Amino acid sequence: MKSVSRRLFMAAAPTVVLPALLSSEQQSVAAVLRQIDGGPALGELYPTQDPGTVQNLVGAAHARLDEVTSVVTQRPTLAKAAWDWGFGDWESALGAASHMGRRDIAEVLIAHGARPNLFTFAMLGQVDVVRAICTANPGIQRTSGPHGITLLRHAIAGKEPAQDVVEYLTQLGGADESPVDLPLDEVAAKAYTGQYEPIGMPFTRLVISWSAKQNGLTFQRDARTPRALRHEGNHIFHPAGAPGVQIVFSVIEGTGLDLTIKDGDSTLVARRAN
């Protein structure tokens, strides 16, 4: 990215705080600052990284090598980007590449400053590193990664180069433990599907849908990315990657009338929309 003069920066900076006070010319200059030479947008929160850019990069890091390479080459600081998909299910770009077994994407991100962790080492097949971490921190192999994906599943995603890690973790035990997720068919799921209105949050909708891809229910706020729900029984679910959060449905005569989200000390109640 080309350097930005102090004059240009000062002209653009006020858009973050008082965009209504700027002339159309100043707003145009601000737009130039946000995205110069077609590079990743700086965004209205600059120097905090633009949320949309971060989310797109984390999404791309699951499979799109060329896109990831282009973005981090233009802005290496984005290689460390992480996104909360909901309920604290944080995923970094490197975390995405790690659970997808994309060694090529992981290597590009690391080369540009991404911080590898236990899950990355497992996928890359670095058995000595994995063994050392697990030995120094007994029980850490039970810690899950983004979306609740286990450490062993990261190693399996690494395929043949990570076979030694798979064998070590299998022998160690506990590296493939997942929270409860009871079977739920589409017919039974109809009791919960629909739109719910959170109390105290007008113009907001929580949508519970059946996903054939997930073979289960999903939770979605407005137009955001749907999150898979895991079934605990007794009308209780938790979001994938957030087993400490409970979504409890009140069901009468086969229909969910409301849902309650219990997230630590915080509680949100939503009523079924008419």
Describe this structure in words.
This protein starts with 5 loop residues before the first helix and ends with a strand. The protein has helices spanning about 5-10, 25-35, 50-60, 65-75, 95-100, 105-110, 120-125, 125-135, 150-155, 165-170, 185-190, and strands at about 80-85, 90, 195-200, 205-210, 215-220, 225-235, 235-240, 245-250, 255-265, 265-270. Strand 3 (about 195-200) and strand 4 (about 205-210) form a beta hairpin. The model is unreliable at about 1-20 (pLDDT under 50). The chain is of the alpha+beta class. Among the domains are: about 1-50, no CATH class; about 185-270, Lipocalin (Beta Barrel).
List keywords for this structure.
Lipocalin, 10 strands, 8-stranded antiparallel β-barrel, single chain, 274 residues, alpha+beta, two-stranded antiparallel sheet, 21% strand, 11 helices
Task: List the topology elements.
Blueprint: H1 6-12, H2 24-34, H3 51-60, H4 65-74, E1 82-84, E2 90-92, H5 93-99, H6 103-111, H7 118-124, H8 127-136, H9 151-157, H10 163-172, H11 186-189, E3 194-198, E4 206-211, E5 216-221, E6 227-233, E7 236-239, E8 245-252, E9 255-263, E10 266-272
Antiparallel strand pairs: 1-2, 3-4, 3-10, 4-5, 5-6, 6-7, 7-8, 8-9, 9-10
